[in-house]
Amino acid sequence: LTEKLQNVFKKLRSKGRLTEEDVKIALKEVKMALLEADVNFKVVKQFTKSVQERAVGQDVMNGLNPGQMVIKIVNDELVSLMGSETTELPIKPGNDMTVIMMAGLQGAGKTTTAAKLAGKLKAKGKRPLLVACDVYRPAAITQLQVNGEKQGVEVFSMGDKQKPVDIAKAAIGHAKEHQQNVVIIDTAGRLHIDENMMQELADIKENVQVDATVLVVDAMTGQDAVNVAKTFTDKVGIDGVILTKMDGDTRGGAALSIKAVTGKPILYVGMGEKLTDLEQFYPDRMASRILGMGDVMSLIEKVEASVDQEQAQEMSKKLKKMDFDFNDYLTSLDQMNKMGGIGSILNMLPGMGAKMKDIEGMIDESAMNRTKSIILSMTIQERSNPGILNVSRKNRIAKGAGVDISEVNRLVKQFEQSKKMMKQMPGMMGGKKGGKRGG
Ligand code: GDP
Ligand code: MG
């Protein structure tokens, strides 16, 4: 983020909510950043517009100025747009055959990536077969053979005199005969979008049962990535994308453009010419690379962590005073969910050491939702004063939560136990014997 922007926002610092003006100013910078990252301008326009609508009126987190808050929202949006989690190729289990077809322009990295994929699948215990369907460049067949040999994967080829669709058909017969269970078809690209190329791919798809068509795109493609992705999607149909050459200095805006246009998941990224250089795609990493605002992002992370830390401190104070009740328990369950388990929450508290494992063992995270529903069935009074829980109250709660009364009993007992345990914790709870600072 530029200094100019920082200055603009200094004036606006103590506002509670994002105004339209705040968002507009910040999004101007974001737009520039995205265009610099080579995100297609139409995608940029659409994206910033939707963020604009969503961001106005949102609360500004403590410790951030409005500009930084907008960046945080932008970043979160980018991550969710590119898929919040990683997606895998739909490889069938056991010996069922999966057919994958590589598609993309010439030089995108299809042949290399086909061999990389074959290696990955082989390492997972699959029996892949690489198929040479690029009949236009004799060197392409040799290239696949060389790469296949390096990976210890058989390459099926019929030279350059047959039609690609016939080679693909024959290859599948060959794979069946030899118990190979993943067939990866390498196809011919062209320098530009080309009717013949599309027709060839469509032919293969019509005559062979292709389970996944993978579009391979050079991350350096930039603005043009949208057209490429759109044409392949419309004319051939794709199931996923692999973005190559991400080891270069491109910011990877193509990833966003492609995702926006195709809606298909990005499966892997190519990180080099070596056959092992194929990595999982992480939307969050890609988002911060595209946004290119590392300094703002690390500030935001710090602020987020300190918010969590504040909450953890608050909890610790309550524990110390021993007025920790079921309401707090409920809050802490939600927090744990958000923060990735009780381990991470306790890690933030000072003085937690050897006892960590005991506590983690006591709270079965898979049972957390049942626990939650039990607490939710308690009255406010019962939550803040568990002492009043007699048999008839417990019975009512059990019914409300749809569990056996024994589970309610167990929870109450567990709750009292963890309270006791917290009390005994050296240093942290500062009980009668305590007082020493741990950590
Ligand atoms: P195809 O025409 O689509 O089959 O593309 P190729 O597989 O022949 O790749 C074209 C060039 O890009 C080759 O020189 C590859 O070594 C190179 N290449 C492919 N993937 C990557 C990658 O992830 N990083 C880098 N740096 N080079 C790559
Ligand atoms: Mg090739």
Descriptive keywords:
binds magnesium ion; eight-stranded mixed sheet; 9% strand; 439 residues; binds guanosine-5'-diphosphate; Rossmann fold; 434 Repressor (Amino-terminal Domain); alpha/beta; Four Helix Bundle (Hemerythrin (Met), subunit A); single chain
Reconstruct the topology from this structure.
Blueprint: H1 3-11, H2 20-36, H3 41-55, H4 66-81, E1 98-103, H5 110-123, E2 128-132, H6 138-151, E3 154-156, H7 164-177, E4 182-186, H8 195-207, E5 212-218, H9 225-235, E6 240-244, H10 253-262, E7 266-270, E8 278-280, H11 283-291, H12 294-321, H13 326-339, H14 342-348, H15 356-362, H16 368-376, H17 380-384, H18 391-401, H19 405-424
Parallel strand pairs: 1-4, 1-5, 2-3, 2-4, 5-6, 6-7
Antiparallel strand pairs: 7-8
Organism: Blautia ammoniilytica
EC number: 3.6.5.4
Domain SRP54-type proteins GTP-binding: 265-278
Question: How would you briefly describe this protein structure?
Answer:
The protein has 439 residues and is of the alpha/beta class. 55% of the residues lie in helices and 9% in strands. α10 links the parallel β6 and β7.
Broad structural category: alpha/beta
**Helical segment count:** 19
Secondary-structure element order, N to C: HHHHEHEHEHEHEHEHEEHHHHHHHHH
Arithmetic mean pLDDT: 83
Subcellular location: Cytoplasm
Subunit structure: Part of the signal recognition particle protein translocation system, which is composed of SRP and FtsY.
Protein name: Signal recognition particle protein
Region (Disordered): 425-439
